[in-house]
Design goal:
Blueprint (H helix, E strand, L loop, with lengths): L1 E8 L10 H9 L2 E6 L8 H14 L6 E6 L10 H23 L4 E7 L9 H6 L6 E7 L4 H9 L10 E5 H7 L7 E5 L14 E7 L7 E6 H19 L4 E7 L7 E2 L1
Parallel strand pairs: 1-4, 1-5, 2-3, 2-4, 6-7
Antiparallel strand pairs: 7-10, 8-9, 8-10, 9-11
Amino acid sequence: MKIHLSLIGMGAGHPDHITRQGVAALQRAQLVLVPRKGADKADKADLADLRLALCRELLPEGAATIAPFDMPVREGADTDYLGAVDRWHDAIAQVWLDTIARHLPAGGEVALLVWGDPSLYDSTLRIARRLAPRVDLTTTVVPGITALQALTAAHAIPLNDINAPVLITTGRQLRERGWPDSADTVAVMLDGQCAFQTLDPAGLHIWWGAYLGLPHQLCISGPLAEAGPAILRERAQARARHGWLMDTYLLRRAPDKETSHAH
């Protein structure tokens, strides 16, 4: 089976976050894979709905088969995080193969809309590589608006200070290792537990955003000591209100003085 797989960055779910190149790739597809929540992702039902809405808006009716599939559940990873993730990716790749074989047995053009961007703290490319030994696979990556672009645009700030480095990391790394050495600015992704709570807030400024680019976008910024508690409250309320939440934030040492604000 010969498969051409297009991984299309969809930003935070707003149709305008997909580039014209991404729209063209989506419209070439014969089959569009749409992941649905697993049992451990009960708060992400709307993510599948957003992908389906994008397909309805951007695809001519009947142009492609839309194939939702259930995401495998990742096993507990308290002692073997990397091993658990590796086995989970194997299971996802198998579901992809099964879904493609069912809907496109002769092979062809397959597309997958990727939340954020396929190259930035996303494992879609790693999962796609698992298909190569079993099918004749070519992969095209179409970048979209990343979460960091959407975050800095929402706050109207640059990603870095003049001649200063930026480190992109995860909530798990920040929680386990603390503030990274030699970093002036830290961009934090995949942080469902708000690892900024583990830091000494003195001299730190935070810019936080959720649902970036969507009509219900939320942004809070200010000194971490003041803005941190407000972010925790807003996150809890937003998750209860919408049933899911995607957010990211930027931390910076010794920022320009300004008062915290939300919008």
